[in-house]
What does this fold into?
Amino acid sequence: MNNNFNNDDWNSQSQYNFNYDNQGYYKEIVVQPRKKRGGRFITYLSLVLVTSLVTSFAVGGVMYSNFSRQLDSQVNSLKQAAVTQTSSDGGSSPTKLSTATDNVKATNLFSTGTGELTVAQIAKKVGPSIVGIKMSVPNTRQSPFYSSRSSTSDSEGSGIIFTEDGYIITNYHVVQYADPKNGAANTALTVYLPDKREAKAKFIGGDSENDLAVIKIDLTNLPAAELGDSSEVEVGDPAVAIGNPLGMEFAGSVTYGVISALNRQLKTGDNSLTLIQTDAAINPGNSGGALVNKKGQVIGINSAKISVEGIEGLGFAIPMNTAKPIVDQLKTYGYVKGKPLIGISAQEVTAEISRMYDLPVGVYISEVTQGGAAEAAGIQKGDVLVKLDVSKIESMADLDAVKKNHKAGDTVSAVVSRDGKEVTLSITFSEDK
It folds into this structure.
């Protein structure tokens, strides 16, 4: 059995393109479906986490999407409609897409019934609660010809003030390198308020699985946003997005549209999120900003968009009813209580990797956390996890699916492959703090 493989081997054999910036930081994964018969071109699809990158490398990151069948159908139909038609003189001209929202936007998006606001009124109500967030990450470059050089790389996103004493909701990917567990102790967070004030912020807690984080500034009497009930949202309802596209240069930008769909299942990395879809324009820098209903209540946290040439109006937000319980725990404890933790670092063994390295398909254990649940159960570096709680494990997504069905303190069986033999162990999940 040959367990000697490196990340370069691993990535080069994947079905995805792994792109890195000039600093060597992970930048994006682009899904590359196989070329279809009949000479059709390969289509590149990516789900972009909308953080504005101020310098050359992508701190916020870009992740690929694994669309649900329903979303696949919508994207394909949009692409089909965008195919150019041959004009009568032999040239070609693009087909103009017309949607029901064109007529709505041409008149008045919002009615003026009881409790309902115009776009201008929503902007005045919610705008003061939307802040800009800059994350500054220190870098040190080593050179054989010069002494080490230090620099700082910045990324910008948005946030929502939700308490008068300075607690702010944002996306985890906006502030992830300020999380102490990511090892960037000198990472600085700066918050820019609509009234032109600036304040240093402290990282309170984050949940990478749900892409949510809470930070805090030491100011009082701040305008807290009114949080709404996302379960009351219906497809076709008007929606307003407020944030900082492309960073602070366009701070407080307001775009409007409708709720395009609910309960969209999108996969980002190893996590699957249930999101609200909207055609309100969402761009890099809008991450962590507000998606607002016609009453001026925040019903979603803008997080991502579909990035496909020729496709627009596919933005996504985390529903407030999903975010609020998580945010409350992050504010109180700094983490989400009861989440199970195994205590491993791992990589997937695909069918192709399995053939190359004579390993079973599963999850390869590259590191075991000292004092963690995996170490206590007897799991070792170099093991391949093939089964957990009677479920077959072929990917990190399979592993996460099992964990979501359990809480800290639960005990399950685990089967690992070690030196060509299967070993059955018992593992008790610890708490992920």
About this structure: The longest strand covers residues 253-268. Residues 340-431 form a domain with the Pdz3 Domain fold (CATH 2.30.42.10). The CA atoms of residues 112 and 204 lie 39 Å apart. The chain has a mean pLDDT of 75.
